[in-house]
Amino acid sequence: MGEAALNATLLKKGAEASLFLADWHGRRVVVKARLPKRYRAEQLDMTIRRYRTVHEPLLMHEAKRAGVPTPTIFLVDVENASITMEYIEGTQIKQVLDVLSKNEREVLCTKIGELVARLHKCGVIHGDLTTSNMILSEGRVVLVDFGLGDKTFELEAQGVDLHLLKRALQSTHFQQAEACFSAILKSYDAEVGEAAAQAILEKIREIEKRGRYVAERKQET
Amino acid sequence: MTSDKTKQRFCLGIESTADDFSVGVATFNGDIVANVSSNYIPEAGGIHPREAARHHAEAADDALAEALNKAHLKPKDLTVIAFAQGPGLGPCLRTGATVARALSSYLNVPLVGVNHSVAHIEIGKLKTGAVDPVTLYASGGNTMVTAYAAGRYRVFGETLDIALGNCLDVFAREAGLKPQKGFPLGAAVERLAAKGKVLVPLPYVVKGMDFSLSGLLTAASAVLHQGKMSLEDLSYSLQENAFSMVTEVTERALAHTEKREVLLTGGVAANRRLQAMLAIIAEEHSAKFSVVPQEFATDNGGMIAWTGVLAYMRGLETSIKESYVKLRWRVDKVDVPWVKQH
After folding, report:
1. pTM of the model
2. Angstrom distance (rounded) from CA B205 to CA A159
3. Which of A94, A171, A174 to mutate to test the interface with B (most CBs of B within 10 A)?
4. Residue A171 C-alpha, separation from nearest chain B C-alpha, in angstroms
């Protein structure tokens, strides 16, 4: 965990990485450590952890340039697969989405759609757009966890990114999912322009039909 | 059992979604008193839906008779008939549904259409004692990570393209391995993989909570046909990549839902390497890990019968008119009112 390890306390043990709260030269920081996964073959595990450790900060930097708030990176330790970054004070969108009023929820979703569109316009794919990875902090939405992200302008990748967001809403906020996703899409569309919006909508539909057991898919028999 | 047969109620379940025609009988207390299967083995390649359906039609009579015989029952002892209404292959589903409708009308007992994926989860819970698990259901046709929330089994992650069992099966066929009775192709890959040591770089595709296996299969097949790697090493590499992906996604669902149990069910559940990986993540999250017993891992009538009991006891029945098969019936479209919220 590098130099921040001395006074680190475990914030969250995620599936992909553990987050530690630490003091780094007088700053409150988060150390994201991708600890070895015992279930994976060692060589495969090392490859995956290092790949994600290198790519995540790059994508977060790109996101910032696109006008999407992300934590500032302070230190990347590839050897130990750990990243030291700014601690964001706030609440996960996951915690607030269901308790907001209808109006507030729509405003928030409009904001989310805008941010995702800005990412995609700059060729950044988040890769794991769940409401756990969005933090409401002083009125801003800060995106975190770009570990499964990608740098590409491909429509396919953008479509999957949005499809996963829809799926995340459906599994976690099933009551609100539909209204939320349509608000997100609306502002996404406004941000990317009509032609791009049309293309992405069609792509999402195509991706959904490719999935297993989707009622709308044409049956071959 | 014979003495209280008059008081005991029974559900007969018919499973015919893919290559198995299976009849099971469950008591309302959760004893599976018969589970008889007949497996269709293709002459070449994968399952041919029409050929499989023909097999099912021919096997139905004997399977029914044998199941009732094993349960020491006469047809008139049955309280309810359950059948797998979907998802699955159309011709196969229709054969099972036809048998079920005929039985229900002839005996004048209610019919219950059961979701095949729900049945895999329910039989896993029944046989292992799991109460509220994160479930990895991996078979030849399905691969998904589910957990119960607000009335349904929600899908937390799933394959974006092909199923895990399908990936292993197609690879095995590409490698020229042949299926044998009671010895599925996946088991052949597992045996080879156990002898592998060298890891070949192959695609590892996790997207959010979902994963993609078709690119992995294509890449593994390409390396296979180059002929430079041993089949053992390649089987090992394929398994390590594929299983790590589904395990990663299962762990994410576990961290996300904070449930305390992990259940492995479906045909691929028999694989020891996959079991070992899931046992590790369960342990790391202080969750209890269970694997469905072999007999109930692959498609079976017992799981349909048991899920039929659960539904029937909550007053759910399927009229003949509504008993049409649903080829793409997603697990998260099914209300499961018998499950308690934890």
Report:
1. 0.88
2. 16
3. A171
4. 6
- Compute CA A64 distance to the chain's CA centroid, rounded to the nearest angstrom: 14
- Active-site option among A23, A98, A128, A150: A128
Residue B202 near residue B212 (C-beta atoms within 8 A)? no
- What's the CA gap between B128 and B106, in Å, rounded? 35
Determine the Cα–Cα distance for residues A84 and A3; give it in Å rounded to an integer: 10
Instruction: Report d(CA A26, CA A134) in Å as an integer.
Output: 26
Asked casually if ipTM beats, i.e. exceeds, 0.90, the reply is no
Q: Which domains does chain A have, with CATH numbers?
A: 2-86 (3.30.200.20), 91-210 (1.10.510.10)
Cα nearest neighbour of A159 on chain B: B207
The domains found in chain B, sorted by start residue, are: 10-120+297-333 (3.30.420.40), 124-294 (3.30.420.40)
Element (H, E) at B218: helix B214-226
Examine the residue annotation and report whether A128 is marked as an active-site residue of this protein.
Answer: yes
B88 touches chain A (CB under 8 A): no
Measured between alpha carbons, how far is B160 from B207 in angstroms, rounded to an integer? Answer: 9
Judged by CB atoms closer than 8 Å, whether chains meet at A15 and B330 is answered as: no
CB contact under 8 A, A15 and B255: yes
Report the alpha-carbon distance of residue B235 to residue B174 in Å, rounded. Answer: 12
pLDDT tens by residue, B262-305 = 999 999 999 999 999 999 999 999 999 999 999 999 999 999 99
